[in-house]
Input
Amino acid sequence: MPLYPTNENIMTFPTLFITCMLALLSNPATAQIKPEVSESVELMSILSRTAGLQEYNMDMAGQYTKDTEAWFAPYKGHPIIAYYQGLHDNQSISYDAVMSMAIHLDINKGKIKFLGEHSDLEQRWNGVDVNDFIVRLNQFYADTRFHDFYKGHRAFYEEGLKTYETNVMSHFHQDWYARFYGTSPTERFRVIIGFTNGGGNYGPSRQLTGQPKEVFAICGYYVAPLTGKAFENGANLASTLIHEFNHSFVNPLLDDKTNATRIEATGKKLQKLSMLGMERQHYLNWQTVINESIVRAAVILYMLDQGFDAKQVANEMADQVCRNFNWMPELVTALRHYAAHRDQYPTLHDFYPQIASCLSQYVESEFERMRKPLK
Output
């Protein structure tokens, strides 16, 4: 089933199609995405590794891991390390909180400055004196001669980016999104390779004054131990990008007050039905549950449209149900209806009432199923 009009019926709304394509071409948020390396991401990752944070000690980068250990091990007694370990123990600064700070740093001419507003950081930084942290981080950066380390591995980074683009980005079809959603994104999407992050992938965002919101996919780097090659099985690795880029289209739909009012009660019930599973995934509010639900369903639609193997698609569906998105079959069915009736629903925003209705019906059927034995 096609996700957008076929040649037989595309003439039913040529103006919409042309408008969407012009918007896609003119919007800087949709410029061709290229993977990047970030000195601030490497700095925060290596600081976290040196301080002993386990999620930044996967040590999966081959020779780069050895180089990192040799360079930074002598600085495990640096004053910032005990301080940073305290932030980890007392403020839970770890995982995505580390990357939230990384994308808010600017490094220029040997000096680190904070970008944006402190309130834009991941909430675990709320109790931290950010200005004091930046002062300490500058000292670590200078004392370890971090820029020399970073500059000395420039060729390695470039080779890693080239491999990622060949093996992974080739499976990421950016033009699908504007066709499926009927709109261009309002956010700028960026891909950064975290060469110290191993199997960890993170999706922080930032909003700088006067600029589009930026959404980052920070993808970990690792070398397969048997072959010594990086980014093998690129089709599977591309799933991170496929998922994250959907957020650039889905999240703004819930920012619409009409949509939020329409789906809020259902979202709270879904969260209640799956609370323990969602908490384990750090999805702590109904808005996140709704957005993640639509994004994950859209990934399955993407896979169907891009000709993924039927077994892969079935495994993706099963994986989402295992992650407590038990309503995924119903939601995917609804989105397939949307995809087949684009003359009626030019954009996913137009279809949002049907999404709300689909999830509401699921919720009511579940509660009725639980009530029935008790009557």
